[in-house]
Structure formats: structure tokens, C-alpha cells
Amino acid sequence: MHKKLKHKVRIEGKGNTKEHAIANALGLIQKKVNAELKGMIIRIEPVQIEVVEAIEETYTERFMMLLFPRKRSQFKLVMDIEVDLFILDTDKIHFIEKKR
Predict the structure, then answer these.
(1) Which residues contact 94 (CB under 8 A, 6 or more apart)?
(2) Quick check: 1 and 88 in contact, CB under 8 A?
(3) How many Å apart are CA 21 and CA 14, to the nearest integer?
(4) Spans of the chain, pLDDT less than 70
(5) Nearest to 13 by CA among 32, 3, 27
(6) How far, CA to CA in Å, does 12 sit from each of 35, 76, 77?
(7) Among 28, 40, 66, 83, which residue's beta carbon has the most beta carbons within 10 A?
(8) Please, are residues 21 and 76 in contact by the beta-carbon 8 Å criterion?
């Protein structure tokens, strides 16, 4: 009825700060695992995190292409995360049909 397994997913996140990029990437774990596996996921527990790529892009932003220059940053992060999953196999649940 339920099973435990390990699964590895690759996720990407972008943001204006390092923390926002990491939070954006970690928020995609459940969506990515649901797309790859069948069943209802009860628990997702990260076991190992490996950073594949971490990029900071900086650029100068100007008001009306000329005035008030300021530096801006965009962070991009790619991670491989190994997770322990506790999955409820919904195909093995047998429902009894009652008619009224």
C-alpha cells in the first residue's frame, strides 16, 4: 500500500537575491517529483544536495537610458537533490461502491 524510495531530481531557481533563488528552487521539488512518479506523496525528505551551477549576473540599470545608474543582480541556481520519499500507492486501494 505504501513504499519508501530514494529519488534524485534536478531543480533550477532564479531570483534577485541568493535566498530567493534557493527558495524558488526548493519550492519546485514537490512539483518535479509529482511529475516524475505515480502515487500520492506523503513525505519528501531531502538527504543530499549538490550544487551543479550557481551564477550571479550583474548589470547596470539606468533611468531613461542615461540617468541614475545602479547595479542590479540576478541569481541562477541549478541543484541535484536526492530525496527520501514515502509514497501511498493509490492503485492498490480498493474502494467499495455504494449506490443510493
Answers:
(1) none
(2) yes
(3) 4
(4) none
(5) 27
(6) 15, 7, 6
(7) 83
(8) yes
State the pTM of this model: 0.77
How far, in Å, CA of 82 to CA of 23, rounded?
17
Task: Please check whether residue 76 is in contact with residue 35, taking contact to mean a CB–CB distance below 8 angstroms.
Answer: no
E strands, 1-100, where? Answer: 2-15, 40-63, 67-88
- pLDDT tens digits along 79-94: 999 999 998 888 888 8
- 79 closest CA partner among 44, 55, 60, 100: 55
89 φ, ψ to 5°? Answer: -80, 105
